Amino acid sequence: MGDIFRTVPSRPTEVAADSVLDRARTGDDEAFNHLVAPLRRELHAHCYRMLGSTHDADDALQDALLRAWRGLPRFEGRSSLRSWLYSVATRVCLDTVAARGRRALPVDLGPASDSAVVGDAPLDGIAWLGPYPDRDLADGPAHPDARCEQREAVELAFVAALQHLPGNQRAALLLFEVLGFSAAEIATMMNTSTTSVNSALARARRLVADRVGPASQQHTLRKIGDARLRQIVDGYATALENADADALVALLTEDVTWSMPPLPAWYTGRRAVTDFAVRVPLSTCGTWRHLPTHANGQPAVASYLDPDGSGTHRAWSIDVLTLRGDRVAAITSFLDPEVFGHFGLPASLP
């Protein structure tokens, strides 16, 4: 991407790109928007990986583009515009991490509950990890491997693991492993030494390897195939809508987990998950409706709840399904109706 900003007179498209850059440096906002538009989605995904929240990613990207707009006259073209924008966005994210800390899932806060916690209340004062809509991923090459890599880099286990890294290690790992920058380029971006970057990378790789399984969700999904995947997603939604505990349990691995940020309680193993399902969502919540969606490169279901028989089912949660083989190994239900807009989903269903 950055190559188009080099001045090579024999290539008219590159000359035109330099002309747009020159106009942007003089304060032409249309020219600036033209330059950053192709990079906006991938920068947003980078901010999400760093911060674990679409809301924070929105704010960070807006702040980064404002800083870039103000600093563009000082951009000398020694690196590509893409590299420079990633430098700006990364610094914004590092400032946010330093001020706010990491985002968590219920599993990070305490042991699993052995039985259903009825009336569990949201835990205040915790910055919770949030889901990421696949529709926000960059429009990458059509090659399946490229699409797979994009989705692997936002998978829930990976983003959750990143939150356990200090900001500098998080940034170094993402810039090197996901985005393909060299250690020397990262050192320039982060105003440090190549030795420090390599040290941060080594520590980050060890921690992430300990927390992320050997097989990515993309590998699992390719092995399952689209037809079986649709059966699993439809079966999950139908079991909840019909209050069918047996159908739900048939979809689950023996060691399945279910968590519902911002509720602190979480469950592991079929017995505990079944007890929760029977005593809460399948009996006492109300009636459910669902729409299939995709989040964090994984199958997901948008859940809508009518708690009182009013006839209107309102946005309730985005349930991200993590699969092992052709069974559900984890359900992460993000109870945040505000994210439905990011997914392009309606606020209610009949």
Give a structural overview.
There is one protein chain. The relative contact order is 0.11. It is built from 14 helices and 7 strands. α5 (81-100) packs across α9 (183-190) and α9 crosses α10 (194-211). It has helices spanning 12-25, 29-36, 40-51, 54-71, 81-100, 144-152, 156-162, 167-178, 183-190, 194-211, 217-224, 226-241, 245-250, 270-279, and strands spanning 252-259, 266-268, 287-295, 298-306, 313-324, 327-334, 348-349. A hairpin with a 2-residue loop joins β5 and β6. The protein folds into 2 domains: 2-109 and 145-211, RNA polymerase sigma factor, region 2, helix turn helix motif (Rna Polymerase Sigma Factor, Chain: A); 217-349, Roll (Nuclear Transport Factor 2, Chain: A). By secondary structure, the chain is of the alpha+beta class. Strands 1, 2, 3, 4, 5, 6 and 7 form a 7-stranded mixed beta sheet that branches. Mean pLDDT is 90; it is low at 1-16. This is RNA polymerase, sigma subunit, ECF family. Residues 157-206 form the RNA polymerase sigma factor 70 region 4 type domain. Residues 234-330 form the SnoaL-like domain. InterPro entries: NTF2-like_dom_sf, RNA_pol_sigma-70-like, RNA_pol_sigma-70_dom, RNA_pol_sigma-G_actinobac, RNA_pol_sigma70_r2, RNA_pol_sigma70_r4_t2, RNA_pol_sigma_r2, RNA_pol_sigma_r3/r4-like. It comes from Micromonospora pallida.
